[in-house]
Amino acid sequence: AAGRHLMRRAPVEARLWLAQRISAAVLALCVVVHLVTILFAVRGGLSAAEILGRTRHSVGWLSFYALFVVAVAIHAPLGLRMILREWQELKGEQIHITEAGREALRDDDK
C-alpha cells in the first residue's frame, strides 16, 4: 500500500520540480529587467519618487511586477521545502507527513 502511495506522489514531485524550474527562469528574466531598469533610471538622474511617478499608473509595469511576485511566491516555498528535506534528511513519505503536520498546526492558529 505504501509503495502505491509513493508511486502516486511521483507525478506530484515531477510537477513541483517543473514548477520550481519554470519559476526560476521567470525570476531570472524579471531580475535582469528590474536591475537594468533601475540602473538606467538611476544613471539617468531619476529619484525614487520620479521613478514611482512614471510607473505608478502603468498596466505594463503592474503586470511585470505581479508576475515577479507570483514567481517568487511559487519558487521560494518549493526551495525551502527542498532545503528542509535535505537538512532533515527526510525521505519520501516523511517529508509529506512533516508538511501535513505543519499545515495542521497552521490551520489551528487561524
Key descriptive features of the protein:
110 residues, mainly alpha, 86% helix, elongated
Number of helical segments with 4 or more residues = 4
Distance between the termini: 34 Å
> Helices and strands, in N-to-C order?
HHHH
Shape: elongated
| Average pLDDT level | 81
Largest sheet: none
The tally of strands reads: 0
Helix content: over 70%
% residues in beta strands: under 5%
Provide structural commentary.
The chain is an all-alpha fold and 110 residues long. The chain has four helices and no strands. The chain has helices spanning 2-43, 48-55, 59-87, 93-108. The longest helix is centred in the first third of the chain and has 42 residues, at 2-43. The chain is elongated, with a radius of gyration of 20 Å. The two termini are 34 Å apart. 1% of the residues are buried.
Note the topology.
Blueprint: H1 2-43, H2 48-55, H3 59-87, H4 93-108
In a few lines, what is going on in this structure?
With 110 residues, the protein is mainly alpha-helical. Helix content is 86%, strand content 0%.
